């Protein structure tokens, strides 16, 4: 399952993410490994040359300009890893829903007694939590 970023992202994390995207762009556009490594080293030198900028406004502006330049030059077939969003294998295998375990035969459950004992305990705790949080459903709710 994909991780959804929450909270604030620092400027340094944004720059690191941008650097990764630039390197992936270079991988997508440059076929020969020697040329790619040369361009990657030059790109790293550009980033290292700007790492001591103390004024955050200037640094943010430089990042915004760099992202705009990357967007304008982005390769039409940008390299994506298979399991990443947009990749060919992204969410290919869906995890089985938890309720399927309720339909296991008793003989199948007997192979994992500790797991199913803990699971039943957790289900009961959740039902009690739900009832305390939202109350018991009324019998005329469906009518």
Automatic annotation (TrEMBL):
Give the primary localization class.
mitochondrion
Q: Entry's InterPro entries?
A: Complex1_LYR_NDUFB9_LYRM3 (IPR045292), NDUFB9 (IPR033034)
Q: Which UniProt keywords apply?
A: Acetylation, Electron transport, Membrane, Mitochondrion, Mitochondrion inner membrane, Respiratory chain, Transport
Q: How does it sit in the membrane?
A: Peripheral membrane protein
Q: Where in the cell is it found?
A: Mitochondrion inner membrane
Question: Electron transport among the record's keywords?
Answer: yes
What residue ranges are annotated as transmembrane?
Answer: none
Gene Ontology cellular-component terms listed:
mitochondrial inner membrane
The signal peptide annotation in the UniProt record is none
CDD domains noted in UniProt: Complex1_LYR_NDUFB9_LYRM3 (cd20263)
Database matches in PANTHER family: NADH DEHYDROGENASE [UBIQUINONE] 1 BETA SUBCOMPLEX SUBUNIT 9 (PTHR12868:SF0), NADH-UBIQUINONE OXIDOREDUCTASE B22 SUBUNIT (PTHR12868)
The family annotation for this protein states: Belongs to the complex I LYR family.
Q: What is this protein called?
A: NADH dehydrogenase [ubiquinone] 1 beta subcomplex subunit 9
